[in-house]
Amino acid sequence: MEHMGIVSIVPPVLAIVLAIWTKRVYFSLFVGIVVGILIYTASVGGTLVEVTETMVGNIADDWNARVMLFTVLLGGLLGIMYSSGGSQAFGVWASKALTTRKSSLVGTWILGLLIFFDDYFNTLTVGSVMRNITDRFQVSREKLAYIIDSTAAPICIVIPISTWIAYVMSLYIAEFERLEIEIEPFGLFLQTIPFNFYALAAIIMVLYLSVSNLEFGPMARAEKRAIEKGELYDEATKDEIPGQDITNLEISEKGTLWDLLVPIVILIAGTIIGIVYTGGYFEPGIGFVDAVGDADAATALVYGTLVANIIGIIMYTSRKVLPLKDCMENFITGIKAMVPALAILVLAWSIGDVAGMVGTGAYVAEIVSAALPYWIIPFAIFVASAFMAFSTGTSWGTFAIMMPIGVPVAVAVGIDPAMCIAAVLGGAIFGDHSSPISDTTVLSSTGAGCNHMDHVNTQLPYAITAAVVAAFGYILAALLDMAILPLIVVLVLVFVVFYVLHARGEKVETDS
Question: Total domain count for the chain?
Fold first, then answer.
């Protein structure tokens, strides 16, 4: 693997520093791209040409184009689904089935897991559906926001049918191609799931807290306020919470439960059928497992969203839930909401190309393999990704910067690439989950009807607890070269630590 020496790290480091300083990840990634290509070409004119060609090439790439088409179609689907009134109808139905405080919390957790294909839609839908139900049982808005946030990005990154997966695969596919190593992209992603300690711990932790009522820190105080005083949020910090274009759509009063469930089921079923179809399952001699392994996930996601859109529009217009005019307008509104995601996709792919040009991954791999013991490398990748995502508020931008570093390091040192990829993903999810400038954190506050900083302050101790335990899990995983036993240790430790912190908090309160 060739590199340009210490200047090889300038593009990603510059992007990171600028992102932390300016809080503008798009600007920072673009500057990193321009500077990296300037280093590579050593020509101002050549840089202008190469920047253009790099970005256009990534847009025109067959896989990337399908990922962008999927993102556009999903945005349109979110627009028409949200305005159909299906979410509100689901809330009415759920209120009849959930009759206790614990069942309302567990129900919120389950709904968060079921809406696993997009974190934006997850936060908006779960919040709008469950808020009235949890309010009835005096669940603090901070607790609702925490549940929403913990079952948004974390579930999207461990379920292989979501807006995230094709993007993640596109990043590491490019790195393995640069290293001239053949991989099966979808199969490699499946291998990362048990290594994604933070995401899995965050998800399980919500269930644990929902059934045990163990709390500590600011969240314990918020829950006590809600239960004892009936104050669902802190009146002293109530203010206007920012929203999103989709939340401003007019909601149909004719929507039913099926208007939410049918498009979601069609999306999932269509994507699964698309996966096995693109893998050749319907051809003679191709088994299901082989078909999944050879699938074109980006194309399958396009098939699933396209069919879901068509059936959704037919459902809504034929039953006069939404006029065709409103369907089309809401479809376009949903697409507009995805423009930031499309922008970061192109920038992310481009800075990955730039890192490959100057040899960032090769240089870091050479330094790390010589300076750090192998067992601490996944831990270091997790921590670096967490810090970067927390500082910038974006997991996708962190994926783009860290994947060109994590994959070459794993290959150079001889560590399971799935472990290092999972460390990038898990660290970025923690940072994004905890950051006050993260879009999903803002949308979780919005969906729950909670003051944004109240949500951040109550959630942060819980997220840090899971992250510290997950970081230890990566050391153990590297030493044992396996996922399952370290994952079990991580989940058990989360339970133990929470119990100890809860007991300590109660003791302090009693003594005072």
Answer: 1
